[in-house]
Every structure is written in structure tokens, then in C-alpha cells.
Amino acid sequence: MVVGKVWGPLLALCAIAGVADAADAFKPESVTVEARIKPGPNLLVLDQGWSGASRLTTLSADDLSNKGSVSMGLEAQYTVSKDKRTAYGMSVYAKRIMWGPEEVVLEEFDLATQTVRREIALSEKSVHGGAQANMLALSDDEQFILVQNATPATSVSVVDLKAGKVIDEVPTPGCFGVYAAPSGHRFSTLCGDGTLASYEYTAAGQHSAPVRSAKFFDTDTDPVYPTALRAGSSWLFLSFNGNVLRVSDAASKAVLESRFALATGVAGNWAPGGVQLMAYSPQHQVLFVAMHPDAREGSHKDAAKEVWAVDLKRQKVLYRSVVEPVKSLVLLDQESPLLFGLNETGLLYRYEVDPEAKFALKPTHKVSNAGQFTVLGSAGGAL
């Protein structure tokens, strides 16, 4: 019986080889490369590599089909321009992969052609960690890009995109995350004492002393996630216990504008969970939050069982949609928005959002193998 299992496949291979000999001569296929990706709205997915190259893939927001990808080094982070045509990726090129000499660069990608335009050398202090938003930030006028550093001492590098070089390093002790101001050359960073520290910087490579906000959260009892979202002249922060905090950084000193709880009076001990666990629709002023039940100490990264649609004006939960477990969310904002959810094993889901049904979610497509250490990126219009 063992002999049969071995020879059966070999005989089959011989038969196939005989047919091939009788066929016409093999004609190799001519390989071509598309000059530009196909038109239509897009979704970006970062597959962050820790033992090899990272990959930034452009998918169709319509059906999740693959349009193209660009490669980066280890432990990549990225951000996208306002027009969604340019991506900036920070990553590490390590000579011996996990130790030894390394080169950290900021690469500028043209998303329409999926090509590298240029690269800018960065400090080796640049953060090497899990992919998340707020590690790179473009200034409002997109003349500068701000890079989070951690050695583990924290600082922010200011990169002049026109000059193509780092022009300043701003020490930010005890603070982490980069939140660019809605106008001007200023950024804020989230601090362990429950405040935001704000800094001015100039094209001449100078920076101001920090301006501290009042304390607006407690690190011990209700810390906030670093993945904040821009909402006009304010940032939306979310706490571990499910409080939504709106903080204005329109002036040099950040100010808490409002605070409300999502799950007060809701049975099941629900709380936020995940990595990139919020998505926001400015058009509808609705926030989508990844929520899980039975919250406990340490469950702040648990995958969502539901996505809650929240009316920010009325500070009210509109609808709770049951979803497959997801940890990251991103939204394509339009009259009928599209929401995308990703889990930690690389399963990516597409949901249609119905504004007439209190922003309920309807799953339409899914794809697997989006990658490990994966984070969703900005969805945008046609390139």
C-alpha cells in the first residue's frame, strides 16, 4: 500500500510529461506592468514586517481587489497627504535584520504609479514599534513632516520636505505621539501626567518651550488611547473606560472641550478595544468605535464584538452593529460611508453604512491574508 502511494503520483507525472512532449513548443508569456493603478476609491493596508520587508498595499474600496503595493523596510509606519496621492513611509533597513548597523529613512511614494519618488535620511532614534497612527504627522500646509522618536527617551524630529532633510529635534520628555495643529507650524504630544504639551517649530530649525494643557485624563484610572482622530479644530481621544474626549488644539494651549461616556447604563460591561479602534465621518459627525463586552484590566486591546455608531453632536449612541472580531477601523467618508475592519490575523471586512438606519453596518466583502502586524490606512478618492 505504501508503494502504491509513492508510484501513483510518479506515473501521473510521467503521463503529463508525455503529453507536453507532443504539444507545441512552449511560448513564454510577456510580462507587463501597468503604468498607473486602476481608477476608483482606495483603501491602504500596511503589513508591517519585523523580520523582513513591510508592504503598503492599495486595495479597491469597492471590492477589496488588489491594485498594487510598495515595499518598505522593517517596522514601517506611514501617513498620507490630504489629496491621498502621496504616502510617506518611515522604516528601518538593518544590515543584520535584528541587530547591528541600521539605516532609517523616510520614503515618499507616488500612490498612482506605486513608485518611490525619493528618500530622506532620518535619525536612528526614530520609533521602532508596532504600526499605529500618530507616529508620523504632516503639518497642515504639508511643508513639514513630524517623526516620533523613542530611544526610549522621547523626542520629535522635524523634517523639511522641500529641503529634504531633518532640521530640528524637539525633546518631549514623558510624552508620546505626534498631533499636528490644524494650522500653523505647531504640534502637540500626549503626556503621562494627563496633559497635552504643545510646541511651535520654525523653518529655521528652532522650537519653543512646551505649553501644557490642564490635566484632562488620569493615567492610572482611565488612560487614553494614543490613536486620536482629527475633527475640525479638535482631536477626538478615547479612554480605556469608554469616554470620548474632544480637545481643541486651535490655540497654543490645548483645551478640553467636552467629555461623555459611551456605555453608561449599558449591561455587559462594554468598553473600547483594539489598535486603531475609531473611525470618524466629518460629513455626518458620527464616530464609529470598536467595542467589546466583559471589559477588565488588560482587555483594552481585545477585538471588537460590536461597532457602535455615535452621534457626536448629541453625544448619543445611535446603533450597535454586531461584527466579526476586528481591531482596526477606517472610514471612506461620503453620503453613504464605507467602513473597513481588520483583525489581527489579516482578515479584512468591508461594510456599507446606512445613514437612514442609524448608521447600521452591512457586511459586503472580505479578504484574507492582508498581513501580520497589520494596520488599516486612510481611504481616499480616485488617484
Shape: globular
Order of helices and strands: HEEEEEEEEEEEEEEEEEEEEEEEEEEEEE
* Main sheet properties: 5 strands, antiparallel
Got a strand count? 29
Rounded average pLDDT = 90
State the distance separating the first and last CA atoms: 59 Å
Which range does the strand content fall in? over 45%
Residues in helices, as a percent range: under 10%
Rg over CA atoms, rounded to whole Å, is: 24 Å
How would you sum up this structure, described in words?
There is one protein chain. The chain is built from 1 helix and 29 strands. The chain is mainly β and 383 residues long. The N terminus and C terminus are likely disordered.
Keywords:
383 residues; mainly beta; five-stranded antiparallel beta sheet; four-stranded antiparallel beta sheet; disordered N terminus; disordered C terminus; oxidoreductase; disulfide bond
Topology:
Elements: H1 2-22, E1 42-47, E2 54-60, E3 66-72, E4 74-80, E5 86-94, E6 102-110, E7 115-121, E8 136-138, E9 144-150, E10 154-160, E11 165-171, E12 175-180, E13 186-191, E14 196-200, E15 211-212, E16 229-231, E17 234-238, E18 243-248, E19 255-261, E20 271-272, E21 278-281, E22 286-292, E23 304-311, E24 316-326, E25 328-332, E26 338-342, E27 348-354, E28 360-367, E29 374-376
Antiparallel strand pairs: 1-2, 1-29, 2-3, 4-5, 5-6, 6-7, 8-9, 9-10, 10-11, 12-13, 13-14, 14-15, 16-17, 17-18, 18-19, 20-22, 21-22, 22-23, 23-24, 25-26, 26-27, 27-28
